[in-house]
Amino acid sequence: MGIITxxxxxxxxxxxxxxxxxxxxxxxxxxxxxxxxxxxxYGAICTSLMENGYLNEVxxxxxxxxxxxxxxxxxxxxxxxxxxxxxxxxxxxxxxxxLIVNEDGDIRESNFQKGLLYTNPQLQEKxxxxxxxxxxxxxFMTCYDISEKEEIYLKNQQEFAGEYQKTGIxxxxxxxxxxxxxxYFTTMRDYTYKNTCFxxxxxxxxxxxxxxxxxxxxxxxARMARxxxxxxxxxxxxxxxxxxxxxxSSSENLKLIFTTxxxxxxxxxxxxxxxxxxxxxxSKIIGKPETAGGWDMAKNKPKELKKVIPEGSLxxxxxxxxxxxxxxxxxxxxxxxxxxxxxxKHRGFGSFILANEEAxxx
Length: 362
Description:
Blueprint: E1 2-10, E2 16-17, E3 29-30, E4 32-33, H1 38-51, H2 56-65, H3 70-74, E5 78-87, E6 90-94, E7 100-102, E8 107-108, E9 110-113, E10 116-119, E11 127-129, E12 134-136, H4 137-142, E13 162-171, E14 178-190, E15 197-204, E16 213-218, E17 223-231, H5 234-237, H6 239-246, E18 253-258, H7 270-276, E19 280-285, E20 290-292, E21 295-296, E22 301-302, E23 306-308, E24 314-318, H8 327-338, E25 352-356, E26 360-361
Parallel strand pairs: 3-14, 9-26
Antiparallel strand pairs: 1-15, 1-17, 2-4, 5-6, 5-15, 6-12, 7-8, 7-11, 9-10, 13-14, 16-17, 18-24, 18-25, 19-24, 20-23, 21-22
């Protein structure tokens, strides 16, 4: 498979559902996410590429295997590796949840001790995890990874997109009157406000022609966006990314930071899966789990509700396998493990980035 990076540029305000079902009789607010589930992008990309004559192997394989199970064939031909935000030629990812900020959003000192995250006891101000904030990829590689966290400037969601509340109604069939109790509200986001785009790095079993562009429909209300081939893998074009991937770990400790949400395939915990592979979990910082379900269009019934671990969640790992490996080698090692236990990994769920952690105190 080759590696490409696609750019998705919203042209209109959009709403990204969070997967929960809306019961109009008990709640009239439709939950929406700032950073959409990766399956939103996967579906839009697959549809557009196949409409434009790509991923032809999918059709051939379905015929050869005499099957209609599209999902199994798609994941052999397209896999999302990573998703970023891009604004003003700078690339961003969700901030790791071990970053601690004060009420003004300034980062304060913290470190792991005995499996717990501690802040400086001399601080005379309220602090909290930097959930919902974003860090530039450059500062992640040059400051976060070498524990110079106080030098980092985090961005809020509002710095990437404007937002407003929308009121909607559902009409009676063939009548111009609203259905009783079918008034709803939701948050719409305007990424055009700051020319914010999404970058999707993917593995693909096809060759996309240079200059590829297509219009796609995106989000809960199918709003217009532009999909285009941006470049190959990021490390081909960004020296900092290339050097970071080649950087060797000097410690047995490693931070596994999820940049997209993930769902475990079964009741096994991630800790038990890693332990089977000789990797210990020294600590973890998990964001508040979400519940995702949605509606199964094929079966015409609600999907089974699943617990979703949010982006930014972090596991502090220890293994002799990590030491002296490059970041790329450790990433490949963990990717192989996670691909077997995370739901829809090929759609971009459970994407992650690694960082060194020298200061782990017993």
